[in-house]
Each structure stands twice: as structure tokens, then as C-alpha cells.
Amino acid sequence: MTSDDEVALRVRALESLLLEKGLVEAPAIDEIIDLFENRLGPQNGARVVARAWSDPAFKDRLLSNPTDAIVELGFEAVQGEDMVVVENTAAVHNIVVCTLCSCFPWATMGLPPVWYKSAPYRARAASDPRGVLVEFGTNIAAEAEVRVWDSNAELRYMVLPERPAGTDGMSEDELMALVTRDSMIGVTRALDVGGEVAP
Amino acid sequence: MSRVITQEVARGLYKATRTAHVDADVAASFKVGDAIQARNVNPTGHTRLPRYIRGKQGVVAADHGIFQFADSLAHGGGKQPQHLYSVKFTAQELWGADAPAQDSLYIDLWDDYLEKMA
Amino acid sequence: MNGIHDLGGMHGLGPIVREENEPTFHDEWEGKALALARIGLAGGHFNLDEFRHAMEKIPPVEYLSISYYERWLEGTIAMLVEKGVLDAGEIEARMKDLS
Question: Is-above-0.95 flag for pTM?
Fold first, then answer.
């Protein structure tokens, strides 16, 4: 394994060569980093989910034509060109993985967390999703159906988590706070009204 | 065709512009509900057909439309536009009788990955 | 290719390690590595499928032991060398100049 210092030096070498060869102008590099750190992220997906929980007509559009429904909220972004949204219910629990690499809906969720890209998750989410869910503290009824979505091609998958109980009077902004990145991957549920991860 | 990435171009990278969807007129070899078998192939180049799917039997759950073909584009072979399907496999078909009977896995497979069940 | 990247169904890779409040990037170089890969892609020097294949060709032991953005970095360098944007050894020479 290379040390972090050596990798950082290798990145600097590549950066200086690309600048020198005129492939990129220096401010563009910071612009791209800013895009991933600040503009893309799970807050976008949380907005989509909270809207779907609040507005049944939007939810219908989100499930039937997800790409356009997400664009409606302003998230017409890279790695969201062809979206699929799958709905979790008491009877069906969906979970998303990319077994071959790290495909992820950047438009609604930003870059994936390290565990999503890690070998153990990619290996076992496909073959033992129930075991993985237990590892994440999520209990799925034995009689429920678990559906794994291996996003191996260019469609990008997002889970619409179940709306937590006791949230009837909550505003869209309040609901947003209950939607976590993990719940949109399907490894956990949305937070309960107390803000805790629901088992 | 290459272009210089200026700050202006970088700002535009937020936008969704790189869809793999292709506007072409290509017939679909399969339709929703068809029983299929994933081909058992072992290409030495790039493929998006994972080993655990090869040779397995499933059912076409949806037709996503026509997409460029990753296996070809990875090797300078052009887009080879073709239908891409969401295919459902039961967990038992993939992992054996010990897997829960009601569980399933969906994966996106191009026309070239599939053959009809006899 | 029947490579190490094709992980679905493998056993023995250990627990799934999660991190509380994970930052987008753990170090400045990670964000830069991602940005430089995006520049190669958006600049039209290589496509996403070629890039994925370049990462798949990283030898298995190395693939599993280096971090995610190191794979991106190595994939980007391999592509740029393959496409003739960089000469083989140019990175190492520049590293020497910069250190």
C-alpha cells in the first residue's frame, strides 16, 4: 500500500501535467470539487422523498417517470439522466448495490459513502441482502419480499423509503430531516419521529 | 474530439447531459414477461454482465429502451445501440434453495446478454 | 473480464465498515483525484466505459488493498497514457521534480 503522502504527490504530479498540457484551467479543478462537496448530496434526494410523502400526485409521477419528476424539483444533474425510483412498503423492501463498481445516483444523493463502494458490501448485498440489512440494524419481516437492485448499467436507482409512523402533521421541511442517505439506498429505514434510526 | 475544461465548462458539469440513452430505431428481441437465460460467456474485455448472473434464468420485468452498449464502447467499438431490460431473477435461482423463496434481484441487461428460453 | 471487481456473491471479505458523519472527501487529494478523472472524461480524452475497464485491470491484490480514489487516480493515469496524452514515466518524473 502506498502512503497517503505518496498518493497526494502522485495526484499533484498529474494535476500539474494536465495544467501544463492545457487540458484544464486551474479554477476548473476547484469548481468540480465544489460541485461534489456542496451542490450534489443526499439533501437533494431528501427533498424528493419529502415531496413524495407530502404530495400524492408528485409521488405518482416520481414512480412512473422518475427522471422528469426529479428534474421538476431542480435536480437535473449528472448521474441522474436515467433514474428508477423503487418504493419500500411493509410488503416489499428494496436495497440498491453496484456489484461491479460504484454506480450511484449523484443527482439525488451525491457521491456514495465508502462502505457502499467497499468490497464486503458489493459482495454480500447481492447474495445475502437480509444479512446485510441486519448488519445495518434493519429488521425485515420474514414474510416480506426483499428486492435487490444491482445498478450495473446506466440507470441509477433510488429507494423511496416508507413514511415513518406519527408524521401526519409534519411539513415537507420537517419530513426532509427524517430522510437519510442510507434510507434512500435501502439499507435502513427513514428516521422515526424522534430522529432515531428505526429498526 | 477533446475540449479544454475551463471554469465555465466545469460549472456546466452539474448538468445532466451524458445520458446513455440512444435515439435509434432498433427492434427489441424480448418483451416484458419473456422468460430468458443470461448467456454464459467469459469475455476477456469489459462487460457489465456479472459472473453470478451468467447462465441463470429470469424474466424480463421492464424494457428501459435503447441504450449504448458498454462492452463495445470500452473497446472503441462504437455505441451498438440496443434494448436494455430490467430482468428479475429469484434469489433461489441465483443462490440456491437456501435463499428465501420470495426474494429477488433485478439487474439491467442488454439484448446481447440474453437468449430466449427453449 | 472475470476480474476482482466482479464481487457479487463473494464471501470472506469481512464486515461492512461504516463511518459516522463521513466527509465527501477524506483528504484534499481525493477531491482532486476525482476532479482530474472528470476532466479526462469531460474533456473527451476517454469514455466512462474505458475508464471503468482501466480500473478493472488493476491487479487483484492491489485493487483490494488501495483506496477507492487511488483506483480512480490509477485508472485516469492508465487511460491518459493509453490515449497518448501522457508518456509512460511522465508521472514518475514529475513526482521527482515536485518532491
Answer: yes
